[in-house]
Amino acid sequence: xxxVQDASSVSSLFGASAATQAKSNSEATTDRFLxxxxxxxxxxxxxxPMDNAQVTSQMAQLSTVEGIESMNAxxxxxxxxxxxxxxSEAASLIGHGVLVPGNTxxxxxxxxxxxxxxxxxxxxxxxxxxxxxxxxxxxLDLGSRGEGINMLAWDGLTSNGSPAAAGQYSxxxxxxxxxxxxxxxxxxLGSVDSVSQGSQGVKLNLAGNxxxxxxxxxxxx
Length: 221
Known about the structure:
2 domains; about 40% helix
């Protein structure tokens, strides 16, 4: 809990700092503009002075610049706030299982549970379990499956009924409808060990030294 509060506090300070910096930049821009405008008016040709349209045009340009700087400061503060909120949500997932894109299996980590997301219904779906060398050790015929997320569990046995050796495995989903392949996204179930935040946003660090983006989550367990 303290970690989430600390992250929120840092975000608030950062947002305030960004707003202060933007205000300082805006004031500096205004000062420079006014100085240049006064100098321009002092040194203008008395026989051909600046007209009101020129002054109004320059003031309008200053207003546009100030507006852009203010908008940038607001967006930076909003992005910082959203990052802290997402970090808080991600921290609450520590110890939970998440279904995310990927095709890895590790019997010792997450009970051999896997899933896939079908773009449309399929009349015939099969899942091939592959060892680290890419050899098929088991093929599971699932019959017809509906559109969207589907899940299944592998009992850890090979095609001849013997237990698969310990190690890293992967799986491949083949789906067919009317003789045509149905596109799909393989999903694996990972256990969240910790979360982190970097230049690419909030990351979930899963058991087995795997890392995925918070936005990749398809289902939480």
